Amino acid sequence: MTKKLLRSLAGETLETPPIWMMRQAGRYLPEYRATRAEAGDFLKLCYNPDLAAEVTLQPIRRYGFDAAILFADILLIPEALGADLWFVTGEGPRLSTITTEADFAPLKPADTVNDHLAPIYETLRILKTELPSETTLIGFAGAPWTVATYMIAGRGTPDQGPAHALKTENPALFEALIDRITDATIVYLSAQIEAGAEVIKLFDSWAGSLTGDDFDHYALAPAKKIIAALKARHPDTPIIAFPREAKERYLGFAKATGADCLALDNSVDATWAAEHLQKDGPVQGNLASRHMVTGGDALVEETRAIVQAFSGGPHIFNLGHGITPDADPENVHLMIETVRESRP
Ligand code: CP3
User: Fold this and answer.
1) Which of 47, 63, 73, 260 is catalytic?
2) CA gyration radius for the chain?
């Protein structure tokens, strides 16, 4: 096995960690903005296999990252289930809302999503032939809780209030929605693997707002079900779990869900994580994205500190969340050079 990312995921401690970045294909890159304009808008870009493959490849050409992540979005699953989805420029996603049984009833069965998502699998097939032989191809989906927060509220919310309200007021409907997303995600990710994804990442961006038993029921249990189903069909495909801002609930999460690797947000202290999380397996992270805006000595020092903290075990270098549109592409070069030159 020569691909660095796969070696780290298999538990190897490498001299320098493999590197990729969340949202590495995005608006901070002029070539991305040009291709998005050619496609028309963001969703058209997601559903155009040639152009989606092109933007996936752009950061690989520019930076030589060790992994490429499929260009798509976690909100394509709600659309495949029959929700309306659109993006408001400068504001973010909008969806038809689900708050009653009458909203839920017209949603399509989980096993039908492949029709709608066929272009995404085509993007993966193109990437499989076009990626350099050393670059790992990552597929992904949103975790059920995070996807449900958008489907219930119809948009991003600071505190996921509408989803918490439905969970309390109509638990049967809330759980039916979580189950539908879980089953659709299994269908979607299995098909991604069959189309060429070598690693899967599950994004639970809003896991941090679940506490106590809710975390067990709606973050941990769905991840466990998805991972078990994928492992049954594709036992050799590693899975990265990202329960963002789960804080102390990161402890034991990999073991409890069967995930091969834990992705850490930047609120997690690297020294603590090396001691308490990395002993259970590979970790990914966790430089704060703002360093891609601000650069300079702080970027170099913080990058070195993270590489150093995780140098005793398997580690994949990444940001703690997605790179932002105001990032300076030169700072990404500085981060990569720092990671590849730093020796503990
Ligand atoms: O990481 C990658 O480069 C792969 C592609 C990817 C995108 N979104 C492309 C995208 C991935 C893995 C995602 C995941 C995603 N999408 C998450 C989970 C990760 C996270 O950031 O917490 C979430 C919550 C979404 C939903 C979503 N998509 C939101 C809230 C927004 C609007 C906010 C924003 O940044 O504009 C998007 C849009 C989106 N998804 C963009 C990209 C490149 C920007 C759209 C554009 O080009 O105009």
Assistant:
1) 73
2) 19
